[in-house]
Specification:
Blueprint lengths: L6 E7 L6 H13 L3 E7 L16 E3 L12 H14 L3 E5 L4 H6 L8 E4 L14 H10 L5 E4 L2 H9 L8 E3 L16 H5 L7 E6 L8 H9 L7 E6 L5 H10 L6 E5 L4 H5 L4 E4 L8 H8 L4 E3 L5 H4 L2 H7 L5 H12 L2 H18 L2 H13 L1
Parallel strand pairs: 1-2, 1-4, 2-3, 4-5, 5-6, 6-7, 8-9, 8-11, 9-10, 11-12
Helix pairs in contact: 7-13, 10-14
Length: about 375
């Protein structure tokens, strides 16, 4: 943990596990240097993503007892309010539904400026299915002077139309990617390090193994590909679904062609080993892994959820549009697998779009402007 003292910011995550929002925070913190001093709360005590913070960054953990309940805990509200009074950060930053109690305690007689990030939903919600209780609580907790940051137009529309939040308090800030870090090269060293020696066609995905990612759909779509394509499927990430997915692969008879790598920190080396990047989620908004794959000049096969189709290059977008099931995902994978020239062309167009439209520096400046103001 670094020692420089910058503007104090309190960040509250339901979990500081490795995920899109946590990785984005680490990238912004690392790029900001000693501009801020970060205090991080992980409601579940998981600080796995701390390894991605540069040693020079000034930050600290704040372990606090949390009452677990299916609703709002008054004991939590009292404890969090007292902590907020004691700490008095320059900014309170909360992330997703899991930190909603912190938003509530700062809602009336506000102690500090508040910024809230919404990046998407877990398995119990989607852009179509919204829990009524959560709609009302978001409407209450995120009202007032709270600034709400979203990465997708889909979430922006939900915040204004479903949660009835003031449009002037919502900021649409697209995620950004460091295109210098992610670039394509014919290098499969990383796969050899992982024990994969095959020179076959590599279909890859990078995701937390949670139900809403629906990697079972991807495994099933992969199973339906013609065997003479010589494809393997590489899944990077970990989570509660891993054992179930491994059993499914064995049941479907494809376990020998599917590799579970677990969490990978140097993802830029992994993407270079892929020929196709695949996503099979039930719900997404603007996933960081998608941008990283695009910046690595990869063609994309994906379900059509959130802003994914809108983010892709127009030619790749036509492949994704309307894809919501296994059959269509198999068709995408097959088209890309059978057309190496198409893969190269789509990859180049995707990288061009990622670097021109979704660069890291633009995202960084907008985040810093909000935190500083």
């Amino acid at each position: 943990m670094g020692g420089s003292v910058g503007s104090p910011i309190l960040h509250v995550f339901s979990s500081f596990e490795v995920g899109g929002a946590q990785i984005r925070f680490c990238d912004i913190a690392n790029a900001s240097g000693d501009r801020y001093h970060h205090t991080i709360v992980a409601m579940d005590g998981n600080f796995e993503c701390e390894n991605r913070l540069h040693p020079a960054i000034a930050w600290e953990k704040l372990p606090i007892p949390v009452v677990k309940s299916h609703g709002i805990s008054f004991a939590n509200l009292i404890r969090f309010r007292r902590l907020l009074k004691t700490l008095r950060p320059n900014v309170l930053v909360t992330y997703h539904w899991g930190a909603i109690e912190w938003a509530l305690v700062n809602r009336w007689r506000s102690l500090v400026p508040h910024v809230h990030f919404e990046d998407g939903f877990g398995p119990e919600e989607s852009p179509i299915i919204q829990l009524r209780r959560r709609i009302y609580l978001r409407r209450i907790a995120l009202g007032g002077n709270t600034r709400v940051i979203v990465p997708s137009q889909t979430l922006c529309d939900i915040a204004t139309q479903r949660w009835s939040l003031d449009h002037d308090r919502i900021e649409l800030i697209r995620n950004g990617v460091d295109c210098e870090r992610f670039h394509k090269s014919a290098d499969r060293t990383f796969l050899r390090k992982a024990g994969i020696t095959s020179d076959h066609l590599v279909i890859g995905s990078v995701a937390t193994l949670r139900p809403e990612k629906n990697l079972a759909r991807l495994i099933d779509a992969f199973r339906c590909l013609p065997s003479d394509l010589g494809a393997i499927l590489v899944l990077a990430g970990h989570g509660p679904e891993r054992l179930r997915l491994e059993r499914l692969a064995k049941k479907l008879g494809v376990s020998e062609r599917i590799y579970f790598l677990g969490p990978v920190q140097e993802t830029e080396l992994l993407y270079r080993c892929f020929d196709i990047f695949a996503m099979s989620s039930d719900t997404e908004q603007m996933p960081m892994s998608l941008l990283e794959a695009m910046a690595t000049s990869l063609p994309i096969a994906s379900t059509d959820v959130g802003d994914i189709a809108a983010v892709l290059s127009s030619e790749n977008r036509s492949l994704v549009a309307g894809c919501r099931n296994t059959e269509l995902l198999t068709r995408q994978l097959s088209v890309l697998a059978c057309n190496p020239d198409l893969r190269v062309r789509l990859g180049m167009l995707n990288r061009e779009r990622a670097c021109n439209e979704f660069g890291f520096s633009s995202m960084l400046q907008r985040h810093q402007k909000i935190l500083d103001s």
